[in-house]
Amino acid sequence: MAKRTSAVHKSTADTPLPDDEHTPSHPLERLIFFSDAVFAIAITLLIIEVQPPRLGFRASDHDHLVALANLIPSFVAFFISFFVIGAFWAGHHRAFSLARHWSPKIVMPNIVMLAAVVFMPFATAYMGMNMGARVPTVLYDTVLLTTGMLNIRLVRLATSPPVVDEDADPIVIARTRGRGWGVTLGAALALALAFYVPRFSQFGLLTIPIWLRLAMRRAEMRAAAGQRRS
Fold it and tell me: CA dist 180 to 7, 41, 45, 90, 171, Å?
């Protein structure tokens, strides 16, 4: 009986544990969880930087309305950055949903991209308190453009061997990579406008959906052409 039990234990020890094909390795999960936490903190800091008006007890309704109106530039900057950071998080989520294997090569690019994201609340508050000024606007658009470029690099690493899932659809990979160019090209246009007409610089960000559509379409066409050649 003892021999039989020993044989069963040995057989169990020699049998590899079942692996869920759709679950990334443990270090990859920790990187994703850490990144999600950083995105959540950064997006929360945006509103913390908007200081509520402090008026005396005798302040009238008009005084309060004027104080809130003075915060409109900060609110505009807040909503712009909220959706931009949300777009970066969505891109990060799409890219790592295609990842299957852990590689130390993605650690530093991920950290550097998150550092740029965390810097955005400061750049947002600076621009919001000085809306229309050239230096704050150029700084904000530069941070946005830099974050976009770092995000493109990270997405490419996460959707390339040895990290990417071998069964991932090439068209889906192409779309995921193409999406990163939407914010980046919109930020590049906004930065160019900031040097000449900083007051209207952020209108360049309204072109993000156009760049996004064009970049995704180009990426899909290249991926489809690659599939036909293979």
Answer: 54, 21, 23, 10, 15
Q: How far apart are CA 12 and CA 79, in angstroms?
A: 56
Q: What angle do CA 103, 106, 108 make, to 5 degrees?
A: 130
Burial class from Cβ neighbours inside 10 Å (0-12, 13-18, 19+) for residue 42 reads buried
User: Three-state SS string across 19-81, please?
Assistant: CCCCCCCHHHHHHHHHHHHHHHHHHHHHHHCCCCCCCCCCCCHHHHHHHHHCCHHHHHHHHHH
Instruction: Give the residue extent of every domain in the chain.
Output: 25-49+75-229
Cβ neighbours for 8, distance < 8 A, ≥ 6 positions apart:
none
| Overall pTM > 0.70 | yes
Q: What is the pLDDT of residues 40-98, one digit of tens each?
A: 999 999 999 888 888 888 889 999 899 999 999 999 999 999 999 999 999 999 999 99
